[in-house]
Design brief:
46% helix; binds glucose-6-phosphate; five-stranded parallel β-sheet; alpha/beta; 542 residues
Length: 542
Amino acid sequence: MNTMSKLTQSPAWQALARHRDALSGTSIRALFDADASRADRFSLEAAGLFADFSKNLLTDETISLLTGLAREAGVETRRDAMFKGERINTTEGRPVLHIALRAPADTSIFVDGIDVVPQVHTVLAHMHRFADAVRDGAWHGHTGRAITDIVNIGIGGSDLGPRMVCEALRPYGHARLRMHFVSNVDGADIDEVLRAVDPATTLFIVASKTFTTRETLQNAHTARAWLLASGAAESAVARHFVAVSTNAEAVRAFGIDTDNMFAFWDWVGGRYSLWSAIGLPIALYIGADAFASLLAGAHAMDRHFATAPLERNLPALLALIGVWYTNFFGAASHLVAPYDRYLHRLPAYLQQLDMESNGKTVTLSGERVDYATGPVIWGEPGTNGQHAFFQLLHQGSALIPADFIACMQPHHSLDTHHAILLANCFAQTEALMNGSPSPAAPHRHFEGNRPTNTLCVDRLEPATLGALIALYEHKVFVQGALWQINSFDQWGVELGKRLAVEIEREIAAPGTIDTHDSSTNNLINRFKARRAIPAAPGPRQS
Ligand code: G6Q
């Protein structure tokens, strides 16, 4: 028989369930009608971000019950343990210290009695020197020409963060540098990039925390072979390849001089690593000062998260509002809709951050949870989403809470465009809440009462972006802590890293395969029989 967990049995949880029932007769719209100051009372400024969370089905009592639940679940204690460098990633026995990566030089954070902040700043200085040299042309390719193209080879946490930030901060990018990101082992990924760049002016960053990831090493080997095939001597590799890793030995074995290696530490999780040397592509693209601003913005959010009471703590509030819908209304997904083209990779980035962190069903004490944990995160920029999946938000059967993100000032001077863009953003959150008040034909009826948060920044710049990302990191933290799971391991990813190896061997071996179920055997054998490039090559195989 299923026994109830301490969490679902707790008085705070039970009170929230009763409170949900009590609110069932009301609507978000009705809460606005009853309180002229609602928008002001349920909004908050922190670290350069403004968040309006008033368009949610919640009252002061909801906040007080949710914060009570968080306190009972020990969220604050766990937060403080993270900031102190305790080994809160228990399954891997590691501290979780991405906050140390943006700590100012005059602060201290200790791991095993050693202050890690000076190490962080030593690597930052190394990154900054290198970024300056590439940007001003002092670091050049083997023929003496300045670098024009930077190719980051990495996957998962060694790709999504730097890729998302480089896209988001494109207006700050160096005019000469074109950024490319190769992640997939699908040969098309690197093939497309290598067709577009010149070996003499291309710098490859091989980014891998472990330096054992199959996809990344395969892509790095292909890139190296391509450089040498262009006529470059073996000695040219040192000018065209740098590595970012925690594994110096494997970097050396690959053939990259460890002088050209940028280090980080096992207390930086992959999906939390863009602030570390994994952010080297960002530093190269936007420069050392702007990279420092990105870190400063994240640090400002860290300070807010560490010190503000839960009732006025933005990451905590966004997390608790999410818990409210996930655990008390059965919401299984959460939409992120940035009304900003530059943030088009943010949903993909947040997918990993949130789903890899909180896609867990076993608690820290090893029991199976009896409550829902991390939702599916998804999204696309507005207004595009409105012409695609927003139909389901308005009239679908599922409740899908959403974050809308708006920048008050664009990076262009097309004011009319920007006014239309933000008019749409505001109109959508209003319509999702209000629905259609007057009776209409059933198919034209909108129930409304669909909750949204709206996050605003004045301008998407390095500091505000840093704060926005850190906001989501800490939101994920609070949810994981409340759900009593370890947000900092990823055994599902580790499984994926092992699974294909055996089949890869079977594909390479002669003959047919019969070691799997009949479906898998058939698929492997079909591939083996039909993989040969046909007599008439495709357009890209000449
Ligand atoms: C992130 C995950 C995962 C990881 C990649 C790449 O939190 O652990 O996405 O970042 O699997 O790993 P490497 O950096 O070791 O190549």
